[in-house]
Amino acid sequence: MNIKYTKKLILLLSFLLFAFVLPDGASGQNFEQRKRIEEEKRTKLQATENKILAEEDRLLIEWGGWIDMRYDQYNEDDNDASLKDAFAATSSLDTRIWVQVILQSAADDPDPHQHSLYLRAKNIATITSPEDVNVTYDNAGPHLDQGYVVLDYRPWEFEFGRRYFSVGQGIAYGNVHDGFEANATFSDWNLKSFFAHTLPHEDNIDVRAPGALKKSDRSFYGLEMRYIGFMGHGIYGYGVVQRDSSNEDPINFTQDFTYDSEYLGLGLQGKLLPQMFYWAEVMHQSGESHIFGSNDKRHVKAWAGDFGTTYNWDVYSHPSFTVEYAFGTGDADRVNVTDTQFGNTLGQDNNFLHFGYLPTGFALAPRLSNIHMYRAGVLLKPLENIDRFRNLSFGLDYYHFLKYENAGGISDLDATVTDKDIGDEINVSVAWQFLSDATLTLQYGYFIAGDAFADPADDSETYFSTDLTLIF
Description:
Layout: H1 3-21, H2 31-49, E1 59-75, E2 89-104, E3 114-129, E4 136-153, E5 156-166, E6 174-185, E7 189-197, E8 218-227, E9 233-244, E10 260-273, E11 276-290, E12 297-312, E13 320-328, E14 371-380, E15 392-402, E16 421-435, E17 438-449, E18 461-471
Antiparallel strand pairs: 1-2, 1-18, 2-3, 3-4, 4-5, 5-6, 6-7, 7-8, 8-9, 9-10, 10-11, 11-12, 12-13, 13-14, 14-15, 15-16, 16-17, 17-18
């Protein structure tokens, strides 16, 4: 048997073994940490699966996947050294198997096309170790991670199934959901529209709504247009409507948890210089939320933005310097930025609540709600002239966080003081692709709590992870 396929068969058997060995239990990281880790994994795997599209066969059937072994360690995740941490460490084995079938038209076809079917299964086995408490085990899967069909009728393309949907930079909305998308691509512009729905067992973003665990029923309708006719620059605009049909279980007759929202976005991206890239996106949110303690509705009016630039210096180690500023408006009488409970209690709701993702660091990892974020970072390859370490990269990032509304809360519920200073964070990352199909990643984050954290919940927080990814 071919060595390549023997290797794949062994890894497939390993996937099936680990899929059923570990019993069910409870998972560790909070919502924002899980979202960050999943986004990192999604982008890693996306880069590997796109490689096969360069094949020239009319009918191409290929399969592969990855095994990701990860260890995450937390210290003072509650910023309080006097209390035991809710979880101190999490070990996980994430295995994903994919298969893709591509049907391409003949080279002389006057209407070229490339139809495809993509399926990917996922299984994550997790061991969580709370401080001074027995470990817990969790096995999620195996289940369908992504599965969709692409029909290519150029200039139109239609995709339906379970896949990643997004608008703009993926901040207002970006997630793996079930749905349908239509794209039209012309020489200077692109138009896409989509409908998407939360997954069957997805947690509600409002974690305090009755029955929030594994019960989210939200629909997303989106339209985006991009114009790329300007040399080296692109401009885009979009609109997204989110409708909440989630049912409380049990029903709360005195409090309604429904949250409906709409988003309008405008963005720019491109080159300022041959080695200098920039991006800018502004988002406006409207909608309706419910007052905590009553069934009264109030209008939502919120804003958010993300602006940054990256300069790639063509010298030894090829350092890449980045500066970024992002903000999301807040509401002065909100304690919790995602939930109805302890949410808006008076007047208009000015809190920006998004259904996508923006990287905000490793340790604190706050949502873009009631916050100003300032980031400066550098990424380089310090040993690029040494063959064994030429694919080793080193990253250093500094974050400074401030509240948008001093009296309001942020996603970290310990920042209860009416003060704008949330704190500072330093992130260090090392990634080494030591084999063509193996990468080792180390991440470290150190958050220094500011005056928005009351004593004793103002202790420093640290985060450390190791991650070994094997691609086959």
